[in-house]
Amino acid sequence: MNERGTTLIELLIAMVAGSVVLLGIGSFYVATLRASHQDSAQTFLQRQGVLIIDEMARQIRPATAFTRGGCNADANSLQATQVINGNPVNFCFYKNGTQLNEDRPGGTANLLVGSPVPLTVSSFVSSPIINGKASTISFRLQDNAQNSMMFTTTLGRYN
After folding, report:
1. Using the 8-state DSSP alphabet, how is residue 128 labeled?
2. Whole-number pLDDT of residue 129
3. Any idea what the Cα angle at residue 50 is, between residues 115 and 109, rounded to 5°?
4. What angle do CA 107, 126, 151 make, to 5 degrees?
């Protein structure tokens, strides 16, 4: 009988080929995992930015007065005054260190709280008020992995 086994060279070639295939699969997995984390981080930043813009719009749109620089000695802060039950109530938006704060009845709220990842604000800029009604607001959010996203919108009051 002519029985032939595998030689050492054939075995080594098969092991090298298998290793290359496994290395390629592993690299693809790591790249996919990295991209997934990046996408999740950008999603969290975008979600929190939209929530902040929505909160600001909710207070600015029904305002009877809208001023810039009237809060916390910050030239870029925004103050919206609403009349609630016949009394003027102020809502202020400003950057304080790495926080984006809203002063409202009942205290100060950090608008970055509630995100699934820790966030900071690295800039908050408001344009001068246009005709007493609108301002362009820009802010940059950043997570702890150094992913950042810039948000810019124009918000105005209806009254």
Report:
1. P
2. 85
3. 55
4. 90
Q: Which two tokens stand for residue 57?
A: 């719009």
pLDDT of 109 reads 92
Helices (H), the chain: 8-60
- Considering its fold, how many domains does the chain have in total? 1
Q: CB neighbours (10 Å) of residue 49?
A: 20
Confidence of residue 17 (pLDDT cuts 50, 70, 90): very high
Within a domain: 2: no
* pLDDT tens string 81-115: 999 899 999 999 999 999 999 999 989 999 988 77
Q: How far apart are CA 156 and CA 159, in angstroms?
A: 9
Is 3 among the domain residues? Answer: no
In a domain, 1, yes or no: no
Query: What is the extent of the structural domain holding 123?
Result: 8-156
Residue 149 has pLDDT above 60, yes or no: yes
